[in-house]
Each structure stands twice: as C-alpha cells, then as structure tokens.
Amino acid sequence: LWLEDAQGYPLEGSRNTVLYNPKQAASQTLFYHKSWGMYANPIENILIRANDWRPYQITGSQDASLTIWPITFTMATQTSLRITAPFGFIWSTDWTQFNATTNCVELQPCEPFGGVGGVLPQVESTVDNVLVWTQVYFNPNVKYGFQHKIRIPLHNPRTSANTFYIEFGYKEPDINNRMYAAAIESPRVASLINCRVGFNTNQVGWLDNRMQFELQTMTPIGVNGGIVIIGNENTKGFAFTPEYTMLDGSDAFPADVTLTAIRQVDATSRITIKVQSTPIGPGYYKFEMKVSNPTARITTPGKWTFGTYEDVSAWPDKKYIDNEMVTPGFVISNRMQHAGFYPLSRVQEIATSREDRPGYMNNVVIEFELRNRPEEVKDMTVKAPHGFAFEDDCLGPPSDPKLKTSLNTVFGDNTGGSWPAGDLEEWKANVAPLACRGEGREAVITIPVGLQVLKRYAFRIRVQNPLNSPDWNRWTLDYNSEASDPFQGFNIWTAVGKPLVIPTTYSRNQGGSVTPITNPVTIMFRPYKTVPSKPSNEDRGGVIRVEAPAGFKFVHTNRECEIDLRVTGASQAILRRDYLCEVDASETNMNIYMMGNTEIRGEDTGNGNEYQLIVYVNNPTVPQPASDWILNTFSKENREPAYSLDETTIPGFPIRNDLWRFLVTNNDQEFNGNQKVNDVEIVMNFRDNIKDGDDIILYAPRGFDIVGNPELNLCENYRPVGVSNDWFPFTGAPECKCEQVTNGPLCRLEWLGISEGKDPAFAQKQDITIKIGSRNPPKTPFISDNFWLAEHHSGFGGLLAAQVAQSWDINPQLADVVITFANGYRSAGSQANLDVIFTPVNDACCLEVQAEFPTEFDFTQATVFANYDVLQQEGPRMVVNLRTPGLIADQKFTLRIYNVRLGRGGGQTTWNLITYADAGLTVKADERLQFQEGAFRLPGKIALMTTPILTSAWKESAVMYPVKSLFLPRVAEWGTAEFRLSFSQPVYAQGKLVIISQGAGDTKGYTLRTDGFVIIGTGQVDSTPVLDPVSGSLQATLKANRPASEVALLANTPYTISIRVYPMNDGVNTWRFDTVDSMEGFTNTNDGDSAGFNPVLNFLLTVTVERSPPKAVIEVILDVDPKGAVVRELLVIAPPGFTFDDGPNGCGDMCVPGQALGSTGRRTATIASPTGQPLTKLTGLRIRVQSPEQTPIGSGSEGIMWFVEGRGQGVGATLGWGQGSGFAVTQMSGTAVYYAGVTGLMATQIAFTFSLDVDAGSTISIVPPAGFLLTCSVEGSMKTISLPGGRPNCIDDPLQLQLQEPLTRGTYAFAITADLPPQTPEVNTFNIIIQDQYNKVVDSAYGVIGEEIVNIGAESPTLAWSRADPGQPTMVTVGITFTEDTSNLQALLIMLPDNFQHDVQIPIDVQNLNSRFPLAPGVEWADTSESNRIKINLDDAEDVTTIPADTYRFSFPVLMPPDVPRRNIWFLALCSDRSCRQPSDRQVVVSFPIAGFALYEIAPAALKVAASGAERRRPLSGHTFVLSLLALLLSYVLQP
Hints:
Layout: E1 2-4, E2 10-13, H1 31-34, E3 41-42, E4 47-50, E5 64-71, E6 77-84, E7 90-91, E8 122-123, E9 130-138, E10 144-151, E11 163-168, E12 180-185, E13 193-199, E14 209-217, E15 226-231, E16 239-240, E17 245-246, E18 258-263, E19 269-274, E20 283-292, E21 303-309, E22 320-328, E23 334-335, E24 338-341, H2 346-351, E25 361-369, E26 378-383, E27 435-439, E28 442-447, E29 456-464, E30 474-479, E31 482-483, E32 487-488, E33 500-503, E34 518-525, E35 543-547, E36 553-554, E37 563-567, E38 579-583, E39 589-594, E40 611-618, E41 629-634, E42 644-650, E43 661-666, E44 676-685, E45 695-699, E46 707-709, E47 714-715, E48 719-721, E49 735-741, E50 744-751, E51 767-775, E52 787-793, E53 799-806, E54 815-821, E55 831-839, E56 846-853, E57 869-874, E58 877-881, E59 893-901, E60 907-908, E61 910-916, E62 924-931, E63 937-938, E64 940-944, E65 949-952, H3 953-956, E66 975-983, E67 987-988, E68 992-999, E69 1007-1016, E70 1023-1027, E71 1034-1038, E72 1047-1049, E73 1055-1062, E74 1069-1076, E75 1082-1085, E76 1090-1091, E77 1097-1098, ...
Parallel strand pairs: 3-12, 23-31, 64-75, 77-86
Antiparallel strand pairs: 1-2, 4-5, 5-10, 6-9, 6-11, 7-10, 8-9, 11-12, 13-14, 14-20, 15-19, 15-21, 16-20, 17-20, 18-19, 21-22, 24-25, 25-29, 26-28, 26-30, 27-28, 30-31, 30-32, 33-34, 34-40, 35-39, 35-41, 36-40, 37-40, 38-39, 41-42, 43-44, 44-51, 45-50, 45-52, 46-47, 48-51, 49-50, 52-53, 54-55, ...
C-alpha cells in the first residue's frame, strides 16, 4: 500500500505484503495466507444469523450460536472453503457444538453440510476467526447451512472490515477454480459506541453549566428498560437538573420517557432515562442537561459509564441490553481572571469584518487575562455556542493568518497605531500561536510559553455564524488549568425562530388579457433588530424590504402597494399613516418605510414582537419550483450595508397550473356567523384529464365546517349536480375531514385515489358541479384565509393544478349568548337583576339590549356597573358604553343590569343584541337578533291567598298527646304545613311543583317529606312527590301519566297544598314555590318571598326529685334550658294526680298554683317575677307538689311527663315549650302485708313490714280493704315485733299507731289482729302511711295487694318455744287447728324468720305431737333439707288425704340467732303440693303469719308445757314408736 504525490512520486508505503488477516502467523506463508484474491463468481443471498449479538463478557461467558445459510449450487461442487469472521470474533473449537444440518426444516431439500454425514471444519493455528474446510462436497440444487458457536467481541472491528468473508476454492491459485465468494457485512455487536461527554464550561463551581451526552445504541430498549449514565470518583460534585434538550443531529427519544438525575451517597451522579410505553429504538442520541459544576477542582478527567439495561429500576442489578461503554469526562479548572468579547467601536467592527448576519463568516475579538503564568506549551480551547463552526485550520498561513494576535492586525490591518495600550497588553511575536485547529464549535490554539499573569491579551479569530441565535448563547476559554466565566455571546441578525411564507394559492396566473389572480401571501417573522420609527428630523425611518422570487409581481397602483402589517394575533393592523409601501420598477421588490411613531420592535429590546405581514402578489404565469423569499431590514431608508439590520431567507412555495374554471356560490344567501348554509354550489373545471389514481382536494376557508359525520368522514349534505349517480360513480362520494387549528377548523373535501377503470377517469375542461352544506365561521376569516381552494394532484405525486375562489363576508353573530336572572329567577311584573352573557366575535365598545317579548319590560330605572356609561335608556331598550377595554373578541363578557322591571304575563323572552365599534353607534360589530334559545323564560306569578298554617304532629294525634296537642308547633319537630295558592299561568301534566323552604341568608330552611303530601283543588290532584337530595326541595310531578297537553293546575284557581315539614330553627323562613314544565323550564314562581311560620323553641326540661313517696308534699327541681329565649313567665304543668302546694307560701319561690289545663285535668302553676322582669335563672327551680297515691299512667303516651311553657312580652306570647321525663311515685320499700286469707276468719294475726330511708315518722296509719276489721287495742292483739319504744298508743278505727319513739332509717315489722271478710274485696289493697309529728307524710305505700280469701277450715296458728337465749338451741312448737276435715293438702310448710335455722340432726328430732295427723309413711314425712324451713309431708298413698278436724302441733329444735331479725315473722303455709318452698308459692293455699319472739322472751303460759318437752314424755303411739326405732337402728348401722 503506497501513497503518492500529485506527480505520482511515492511518498511512503508498506515494506511487506498487507496481510489478509491481521492474526495470520508469520509461519503461514502460502499465497492464500498473504493477502486477498479475486474469485470467478459472487454467491448471493447468504444469510448470517446469531441467537445473541451481545459480547461474550456480558452473556455469562456464553458463546453465540451463529447460523450461515442457505448455500446452493447449480452443479455438483467439490472444493475448499474458508469462512473468515471479522477481527475479534473467535470460532469455537468444541466440534460437538457444530450442527451440519441446521435449518433443515426451512431448507428443503436439505443435506448435511460439506458432504455425507457432514464435514467438520478446522480452526487454523493462531487464526481463531477463520474456519477452513480443506475439502467439501455439495450436491446440486440442495440448500446447505450450518450452525456453530462463536465468541462475540466487545465491539465490531474498528481497524479492519466488519465483514464475514466466504470463499469457495480459496486454496486454488487458478481463478477458474476459485469459484465463488461472498462478503457479508456483520450485524452490529450489541455494544454502545460513539459515547461522548461534552460541556459548555469546566469552571469550578459554575452553577449554570450545560453538559452534552452522546451515545449510539444497537438494540431496542423496551418498557421499564432504559439508559443509565454514571460517573466515577473523579466526577463527584456535579448536580444535574432532571430535564433534557435534544440536540441537532440526534434521533428523538419517545415523548413519554422519564429522566431522573440523582447525586448518589458517594457524591457521584447517576442519570437514568426510563422507557414508559414506547421503546427507544436503535439510534444515535445527543442531548444536553443543565448542571452545576463541582465546587472543588478535579485535575484528573473522570470517566462516565454508559449502559442500557432491561430494568433500570433494578439498578445496580444489571441485565444488559448493549454492552457498556466508558468514556472520559473532563477536568474542573480554577476561574480565569477575565475573558470576554472586546467591545468594538463601529469603526473597529468594519475594520475587523465583524458580521453578525446568519450563516456569514464572522470575525470576533476575544480578550482574556490569566491568574497563573504558563510554564510550558499548552492548548487554549475556545468554545462557542452550538451552531458556530471554526475552520479546520483556524491558524492560516503566516502570510495571511486567520488567527490574529499581533498588535498591527487584531483590530484590522495596520491598526497598530490605534492599539488600546491602556486596555490591552501586546501579544509578542515570540508567543504567537503555533497551531490552531477547529473542531466544530471548538478551536484549539497551541500557545508557547510567555504570556504574563494579570495582563489582558486579545486575539481575533474567524468563525462561521449559525442561522439563528443559540438558546444558550455563551462562550468560554480554557487555558493553563483556568476556565473563564461563560461570557455573553452576540445575537445573529435574523428573524428569530422560524419565519414563514404562507401563500393563499399555488396556482399560476393565465397571463394575457385574463385578469390576474391576486394572491395574499402571509409572511410571519420575529425581528431581532428593531426597525426604528421615523426620526423627527428625517422624512422616513427604518425599512422592511421584501424580495419575491422571479416571476412574482407585487400588486400596486402607481408603485404604491397595499399591505396588512400587525403584531401577530392583534385585532387591529398598524395604521396606514405609519408606513409607506412602494414597489420598485422590477415589481419584484417591495420597500415598507416607517413613516410615523410606530417601530417594528425586535428582540434586542428585550420585549420583541412577532409580526404578520400580508402582501399581495400576482403569481407567475408559468409553473415554477419553490424559491426563497428574502426579508431584510434597515435602520435608514437608503438601505446601505452599513445600516443593515436583519437578513432573513424564508423558504417559498412552488407555482402550479390553475383550473380552467372554479366557482363557489352561497345560494342560501346566509351570511350570519355560525349559521348553517345548506346550499353551497361548487363548480370545478380542470385543465388536465383526471386519471385513475389522481386526487381532487377542495379546501374550505378556515373556519367553515363542511363535515356531516366526522366518524364516517361524510360531507355535509353532499349532492352531485347534473349527474344521476356521481361524478366518479366507481370511486364513490368524496370524504370530508377537518383539522382543528387556530381560528377554527380547516376542512377539506377530497376524492383520493380516483378509480373509475377508464382513461381518462374524467375528461378535461368539463364542469364538475356539486353542492354541499357548510356552517359559517363566527366572523369573516382573515384576509389570507377567506378563500376556497381546489387542487388536482397526480397519482404519481405532485400538484398538477390549483386555484382559489373568494369566499363571502360573514355577518358576525354574538356567540354563547345567555340572558338570565342574575340573582335567581323572578315572576312576571317584578323587579330583577339580569345578566347578559356572550362572547363577542369582534372588538367593540358599546352594547344595545332590547327586550322584544313579553311586552312591558322597562329599563327606565335600570342601572349598570359604575364604570360604564348609559347612552340611551327608554322602555324595553338600553344602550351601554363599556369603556376601555370594552368588548374583546373571543373573550366571554357579562353585563349585569340592575332593577329591570320584568314584562307582563310571563313566557319565553325574545331579545335583540347589537354591539358597536364606536360610541356614535355608526359601525356595527356583532349582533344577535330575535334571540330566544339561551334567553330565560319569564315565570308567571304564584299568589298566596291566605296565611299558611303549621300544625304540629302532636295536634294531629291529640288523643295520644292531649297536652302536647295544646301547644304551638316547635322547632326540630315534624309538622304539617298548609298553603292556599293560585297560579297565574296554567301548569300542565308531567310538569312539576317544586317547593323549598329557605332560611335567613344562605341557611337551610325546613326539611320536607313526601309522605302526606297532597294537592287539593276541586278534588285531589294526582301527584308523585320526590325529594331532591342536594337542595332538599320537594318536587311533585303532576299527572305523570297524562299527556303533557292536559292542564294539571288551572290558572287563577285556588289550591290547597299540605306537606310534612321539619323546622330546623325558629329563625326567619320563607317559602319558594315554582312550577316547572316537562322541558324543565320555570312556568310560575312566587319569587321565594312568601313568609313562613313562627314555630316556638324546643325548651329542654330536666325534672329531678330527692324523694317521691305517695301522697306527700315533695320538692321538685326543674332545670329549664330556654334556648336563648327571654322568658318572663313560665307555666309549669304537672302529671295527672299531682297538685301544687296551695299553702300560704305557695308552691315555691315566685310560684303560684293555677287552674287545671283544659280537659286534661292536669294542674298548673306559674312562675313569674312580681315586677314583670325576665326570669334570669331557670335552673334549680324548686316547687312544692303533693304526689298522688300511685305513679300516674296518664292518658295517651304522656304519662308522668312534665311540661313547661315559656312566655315573653305580651299576653300569651309563647316563646317555646318543653317536656321532661318525670319520676315515679315511689312506694315505701319493703312494704308487705301478711295474713291467712280464710273466709270469715276472726281475730287472726295480720303482719305488716316496711322500710324507711329517712329518720322520721311517729305515726303509722293503716287503711285496709273494705270488710276488714283491724284491732290493736285489745290485749294481745298488738305485736310490735321491731317497732321502737314499746307498745304504741293505738286507735282501732281508723287504725293508727302512735309510736313512743320516732322511726329511723331501717326495716320494721309489726302485727295486729283482724277479722276477715267472707270473700275477697273488690279492691283488695292496703295503704300504709308514715307521718311525722306534724302529720306530714314521711313515706307511704298505697295499693299494697292483699291475699285472696279462700274457704278452708283452718285457724289459730300457735308458736311456742322452750327458751330464747341468743345463740342457744331451743325447742320450737308450731301448731294449727283444723275446724273441719280438710282434703287436698299435701304438705305443711314451716318458714323460719331470717337468721333462724332449725337444728334437726336426725329425723326423730321433728316430732308430731298429734298422731291423728296423716303423715307420709317412713322417715320422709319431715323434709328438713333446708335449714330455714321444715316441710311436713302428708301421706299420699291414697288419691285423697284428709286431715281430720283437730289441733295439730309439731316440735323441732331450733338454733337461736345472736339477734332476732327486724322482720321476725314465722309462717305456717298449707300446701296443695309437696313442691312448695315459700309461703308465696302458687302451691300454697293459705299461709298464716305468726309474730316471732324476741330474745329472752318467755313463751305464752298456755303453750309453754308443750314447748318445754312435756309431751315428749308421753307414751309413743305404736306407729310413732316403730318409726322412731327404725330410725335409731338405721342411724347405728350407718355409723362409720
């Protein structure tokens, strides 16, 4: 390999043959080892596949399986074969992995590769990327292939071919035997390449740096996968903002990728780009991120690792997609003392060829100052913003250097005499740069040693400008480990952004006598340099020059042209007096001179504008390709280069043929904005034949909507005219589509891919007439948009013809018009505030509002916002000047008009609205006439004919609540409201009556219910009420199942409405009644101002009492919560039976008993201040009442309920009332009466027990049932048992015991004698009253139930005892006399008093003292199992056991308690069944109480002998003896 100069002389070359394979061993010297050779024929269509192209290092040391196939020969072939993989690939020597029959399913017919059974290859020594077969054989027309393992390198080769070479006959020296060869490019190894890290500045601590990252990926990155970039320890301290910007020349990331940038624990950075739903494809990606530099120097460039992984969320767990690549970073340098552009004067700019226009070669002068002296030759890097480009050789030859550093050249040739010595140090010749090489936006200048510290040097360097100003427009210098502050660059003198030229039509002009088509062309531009207004001392100011391409002619009249120049989006153009437009003699150039105070503001002011310039041209008469338009600006009218501002080249548009004829007609003559036009007639006549495959497209003006069904792309009301089927019957009807763009839709009608099966599909120069429907835009489209455009496109591509037709002007209609009530709807004839709401189409100053219907609207007294002026105001019409800013196009506006007198009668309102551009009302802007659709319907009047009535639920159930029903309705309680209404407008079936209660302000009124709702007229009106869950209103649908034409409520007819209501409070409440028809429109209303009700407050009452004995004067404590009411008088109502103390002191403080409460009979009392002052304290009120005998049941459900009614100022002014649960009349506890209820029993003992909870009481009164005769005065009739003080004084009738000592808290018992009636009294109750010495009831028990009277011959129970010493045994004898034979008894039960217990040890301890008693046989006749009772069981051997008339006694041992109980009463019960256990059991026929004995008391003499055991000494009867003997024997035998 040799290099030669231009004359063919060799310069340098290789001494030896260039090897075919770099791995070839020196010992391999055969000709086919040395270099490459030619082959007779190519072999094609061989494919190379691998199951994994990732490098061996990231696959877990797994070789890839490489398949080469298919290989086919047309004749039998025997030859040698060599397959060379690219450098770095290594074939496996494990031949067990070789598959000679791979892909046989796909390759038919298929045979083993190389011959019968397959022939294995060899790997030559040291040449591990080569497989060789010394001899292989292939049959004709058979597809061969093989698969073998190969090791994939880290990357494709960089210094040799990335190619697989397949050579058949490689060992043959003869070309005829070197049969076939193929060179197949290897797929890319799955490794990242071309990774790079760049920066804008490497100054330490700089906060607003930009870093660039570049990488090339090989493999798609799927969902959740992504790119990770991470720095090593020499990259610590960077702080990234998680945003990125794609750079020019980069493939694009999917829009939904996410980027995160974090500083890790070790201060290194990790940047992650994660795929969301759209994969990142293989590509070359370049992006930039904002970053803050480390705050400390980094002297060793760091390293950045780029990687792509399957799941970046799992990082650092790496599932590789492509192999990683490590690329160097950069050092972080100290701050340079100074660097920047030297501020050139205008003379210096000219001398240095300074040129800031786009794309020009520029010269810039840069100054700098060092902090440290360089000690060796070093490179200085000048880094410009993106888009700038330095020359490859930026130094230039010594004779004409491009890099200027000498005193005489930096500021222009031969300018040393004006060198700014005070500012700059001279750059000596011995330190002149040695080299300068440009690398895109960087220039690297090699500088020898010699520059001094803290001296400011300058140099001039050439650089090519970008076409636009960069976004990050800063320059930097880096030299001698010092980095400059990024210094501000300069702006390119061109329109900012992307200027546009937008034609209205591409069609040519026909020329000749045909009137040329005027084409409005829109130029959009944003100047960088401001075009100045006219100075006061000059005729003209700056200039905008427009140069059209050749063939175009600006439209003019005597060289003066019309234009439209405005700030983009402005509703008004720059005034004509502020500019002069002239066309030069060529008619191709236009100059726009600034003639007034208006300037064209550029970005150099910091507040520049984008401008829209419309110029009018006649297109060329022949088709021509697109050419550039030039827009230049100048500061002065003479347009010399010295006054040049911006220079902008804007891509133009091509010119095509026109149509022969093109007409568009609005046959409906409908010109109102936003209105439908049903008949738009379009005639198209094309110059060229229309062929199959061609397209015909008709564009509507911007804002015209011609689509009928967007989903089906149907045209609105499409009709072909003049043909029976369609103009293109096989192609079918055209489609219509719209794109939503600024200022309305851009719609088109199109026949795409015409297919008629003939040539031509439609002949030239014939009319195609169609009709379609359209909807007009809100206003006339902009000048350049108000055209219809027809185009004919060839099926082979390209526009054949196009032409425009002027569209019609639009009469703008106010949009989104709504006229509504401002503060809720009102009824006819009332006053209301109205809102007039609309969106204007055009700017305007004034608005006229006129009410057309109903009549008698009146604006005479109406007012508007103070900043507006009312120009006219009479009857139903009002005109308002809205002043600045007035009405702004496309901005919704609301005018509120106050105090409008509404029309008469109600109904749908009709309005006229007109806006004007001037206060003189001469220039109409927009209108909306006879407007109804968004205007309110005026409701009729609902009148309240009588005062409404509120009835409480208690009154509705007066029988159940006789007291509550007498009170006024209360808050927080359900009641029934009744209204009598009439309606000025009829209400129809399926309409609704809506009722809602409103509280004060915005508070909620009453809660309503649907149950019980009814409407009554001459009869009940069918209604279906429901509650609205949001508003709480009741909405009753009237005659829901009748036709909507049927009247449900007649006009001016009274109706009564009843509804269940719940007052929330006692505040003001008003009621709104509305009727709504089936269209959900209000037909009647009462304006919501019907006064409601005055329910009284719900007082809280608490009633407490310390004691409540029957028939006692007790003190009751009332706590009343009046809920804030000022109460002057409180009426207290007691439960039935209670009476208020009418003694001289009244019933309490300020309490006076009153009369009964009507028919309830309840007693009342009034608490009021004698002076009439309010009652300031309503808690702890103490009143005295006398309780009844029993807790009153009362009538209804009010029982023991107490009530209070609070009254205020004025007679009967009830403020509220409340009820409180009362208390039960508490009968004296422990009260009981015991006696044997035997018919006519005389002088029997009757015992009483009671308990007191107070220390009081000296008199006991007993009131027995009728027929009872009680005696206490007869000797022996009184048993005091536990009464204090010995025998009391006794009065028999009525029975009264006057105690010697007062009672104290505790339980008491006593007994007297009684004669019983022959039968149970009708009222069989006892009253026991305890009174003190003042005869006041201390406690009592009324209604104590007596015993039932039974007819049984039993009487005279007796009790005797042997002794009564505490804790000692005694022998007790209990007796009973049966006056007649008695049957139906099975047991006698002897019940001991509390604390007594029998001492029966063995059965014979219980003795029957009368053998005639029919005892149960054996030892079971005495049941002593319970210590406090003994049961004597009768013989039950026979069906009936009869006790003979006689006196019977039973004795048994008893253990005396330490003290006798207060209730010291023994009971002898006669039981009908042995199961009885208590004297009160239902099995007890009658029970005799027997007063017990006290400690040490001696038994009565008549019974003492028996009790002392005299009868034990009597001989036992035979029956008794036998039983006793058996018991003794059994006891002996059972002893242990």
